[in-house]
Specification:
alpha/beta; three-stranded parallel β-sheet; 3 helices; 31% helix; elongated
Length: 118
C-alpha cells in the first residue's frame, strides 16, 4: 500500500517536528501495512526558492534515513506538495518537485475561490 501524501520529513513543514516523531510515524505506517511513503512537504513559491526547498528536503531526508538504518522501514519517495503559483506550467524547476523518478506532481490549489483563469 502507498501513501501518496505525507508530511513525514522532520522539521521541514507543518508535519513532523523531529526525527523521533518521524520514526514513530514510520512505525505506525508500517503497522498499517504501508510499504511506500511519498514525502511531500509543502512548497510555496512565494515563500521559498526551489533550491532552498530542495536542499532542506534532502537534509531532512538524510537525517531521517540515517536514523532508520538497520531497521525495516517503508520505502521513502521524495516529492512536494506544490501550492499553485503563476507561471508554474513554464517553471524549469517543476520536474524536481515531482515525485522522484516520475512526472507526477501533488498540486495544492489556492485556498480562495478559483477564477476562470485557474
Amino acid at each position: 500500500m502507498i501513501d501518496f501524501h505525507a508530511h513525514l520529513l522532520p522539521g521541514i513543514d507543518d508535519g513532523s517536528d523531529s526525527t523521533e516523531t518521524s520514526l514513530g510515524m514510520l512505525e505506525m505506517w508500517k503497522e498499517q501495512g504501508i510499504t511506500t511513503i511519498c514525502c511531500t512537504p509543502h512548497f510555496y513559491a512565494n515563500h521559498n526558492t526551489p533550491e532552498r526547498f530542495l536542499r532542506r528536503r534532502q537534509e531532512a531526508y538524510e537525517k531521517l534515513t540515517a536514523a532508520t538504518r538497520g531497521e525495516e522501514s517503508p520505502e521513502l519517495i521524495l516529492g512536494a506538495e506544490v501550492h499553485f503559483f503563476d507561471g508554474m506550467s513554464s517553471s524549469e524547476d517543476l520536474p524536481e518537485l515531482c515525485l522522484s523518478g516520475t512526472d507526477l506532481l501533488l498540486l495544492e490549489m489556492p485556498f480562495t475561490r478559483w477564477t476562470d483563469r485557474l
